[in-house]
Amino acid sequence: MNTLSTFFIFISLFASISHGIEVDYCVGDPSLPRGPEGYACKNPSKLTSDDFVFRNFRGEKQTGGIYKNNITLAFAEQFPAINGLGISMARLDFGVGGVIPLHSHRTSEIIVVIRGTIVAGFIDASNNAYYQKLEVGDVMIFPQAMLHFQVNVGKKPAMAIVSLNGASPAVQQTTYSLFDGNLPAELAEQITLLSQKEVTRMRKLFKTA
Ligand SMILES: *[C@@H]1O[C@H](CO)[C@@H](O)[C@H](O)[C@H]1NC(C)=O
């Protein structure tokens, strides 16, 4: 192999790993269709500093619903400036006894507790559950795609901030997937081995929520 072909192999390798870096940023336009790599970019000449700031984590959040929580997402849809940057955040508020039920994302998640005491954990593909009581300032990682959960075990409301290494990491919650979607009750029974009575109770719980 001569020097020139080695050079071209090197150049094409370099090109293939750096192909995505053609713009400094791509603030998404959620009104345009979204592809697998994110939203199309807003016209850069229309951007202002405001586009790069997200203010919805401010203030008190009212908790409620079956799980007594309030989830504020700063994903690409809510915060289009993170489009394509492989990063996002969410604020989790827990009422007393509040829960973020078992769920997963396409990404990893790292949590820091800001207020209160929670038990957080994940369950890996070998069914090992790793969970800990976390106090203010504690950080825990939930590895990519693993099922995980958080429970407020304190006597007061709790709050935590999470960051995820994807701009649109999605939130797939197992109980909502089974009982709040279009999965027929009979299939829910078959794939969970829950009784008809229990599946009916769960579906009612989510329908009225
Ligand atoms: C979350 O809290 C905000 C602010 O209090 C409130 O407007 C919103 O309705 C709450 N969402 C849920 C699902 O409770």
The first-level CATH class name of the largest domain = Mainly Beta
Low-confidence spans: 8-19
Rg is 21 Å
Global shape: globular
Protein structure class: alpha+beta
Assign the CATH topology of the largest domain.
Answer: Jelly Rolls
Bound small molecules, by name, code or SMILES, are: 2-acetamido-2-deoxy-beta-D-glucopyranose
Approximately what portion of the residues adopt beta-strand conformation? 25-35%
Level of helix content? 10-25%
Major sheet: arrangement of strands = 3-4-11-6-9
Question: What distance separates the N and C termini?
Answer: 68 Å
**How many beta strands in the DSSP annotation?**
12
CATH superfamily annotation of the largest domain: Jelly Rolls
Instruction: Work out the count of structural domains.
Output: 2
Per-chain topology:
Elements (H helix, E strand, L loop, with lengths): L2 H16 L15 E2 L2 E2 L29 E6 L13 E7 L4 E6 L4 E7 L2 E6 L5 E6 L4 E4 L4 E6 L5 E7 L7 E2 H6 L5 H8 L3 H12 L2
Antiparallel strand pairs: 1-2, 3-4, 4-11, 5-10, 5-12, 6-9, 6-11, 7-8, 7-10
Helix pairs in contact: 3-4
Describe this structure in words.
- The protein is of the alpha+beta class.
- The chain has helices spanning 3-18, 174-179, 185-192, 196-207, and strands spanning 34-35, 38-39, 69-74, 88-94, 99-104, 109-115, 118-123, 129-134, 139-142, 147-152, 158-164, 172-173.
- Strand 1 and strand 2 form a beta hairpin.
- A five-stranded antiparallel β-sheet has the order 3-4-11-6-9, with no helix packed on it. Strands 8-7-10-5-12 form a five-stranded antiparallel β-sheet. Strands 1-2 form a two-stranded antiparallel ribbon.
- It is globular.
- It binds 2-acetamido-2-deoxy-beta-D-glucopyranose (NAG).
- 2-acetamido-2-deoxy-beta-D-glucopyranose is lined by residues 61-62, 64, 70.
- 2-acetamido-2-deoxy-beta-D-glucopyranose (NAG) binds at residues 61-62, 64, 70.
